[in-house]
Amino acid sequence: xxxxxxxxxxxxxxxxxxxxxxxxxxxxxxxxxxxxxxxxxxxxxxxxxxxxxxxxxxxxxxxxxxxxxxxxxxxxxxxxxxxxxxxxxxxxxxxxxxxxxxxxxxxxxxxxxxxxxxxxxxxxxxxxxxxxxxxxxxxxxxxxxxxxxxxxxxxxxxxxxxxxxxxxxxxxxxxxxxxxxxxxxxxxxxxxxxxxxxxxxxxxxxxxxxxxxxxxxxxxxxxxxxxxxxxxxxxxxxxxxxxxxxxxxxxxxxxxxxxxxxxxxxxxxxxxxxxxxxxxxxxx
Length: 284
Description:
Elements: E1 2-5, E2 21-29, E3 32-40, E4 44-50, E5 57-63, E6 73-80, E7 85-90, E8 94-96, E9 99-109, E10 112-116, E11 120-122, E12 126-136, E13 141-149, E14 151-152, E15 157-158, E16 163-172, E17 175-185, H1 191-194, E18 200-207, H2 212-220, E19 230-236, H3 238-242, E20 247-254, H4 257-266
Parallel strand pairs: 2-6, 5-7, 6-9, 7-10, 8-11, 9-12, 10-13, 11-13, 12-16
Antiparallel strand pairs: 1-4, 2-3, 4-5, 13-18, 14-15, 16-17, 18-20, 19-20
């Protein structure tokens, strides 16, 4: 894997790019996907790795300082043009420290978007909001992972965040396909009591003809009875079926982030079939 640092705050003229804003445009050119645009302003930064053996493009989203602190607002706009395949991921778990912060990803997709961030880890006193909105054109397709952990369980910081609100939505030609939303707020009672003894949760979505092999793996894998270490539920997306599109969802609850990600990666084993790489290969 080769890595190139994306242009960011250092290269932008003063006042031309607001703090925490990033933009990515993936384009098909000469038989492969290239990153026509990668711009980011602190605390956001883009790293552009190159994976041998694939014609897709990849971009890694990084935040300075190892995570989000009070007042941080990150907005990422992604455009995947027709025929292009983009894999977007994070360097590690998004760490959220005490205070309020938010992160939004908006994507317009004519090609294929594989959005695979590591789970969010919100620490004691954190109030975090995350939104992922993917708008698919007629031939657009996407794989989206949304996950979170209990924080720093090994250090006694377990489900100690103030509030956590996550939402991932996918539409196709302006029609809603799926909206997956979760809100945990300590004002409603101890969050740990609602976690059921688990320390990591993840939701994996696949929508569109371009990711049919992933949708098949998500809902085609046998699901074992739930245990204290792992529980998985998977099935089709009814609205995708109604639109004549492949679509599937899997929900994972696990006793550790590593177990949760192992269950997710098992359902991503067909990524090579859509000319995409597994960005977690060297870490889980």
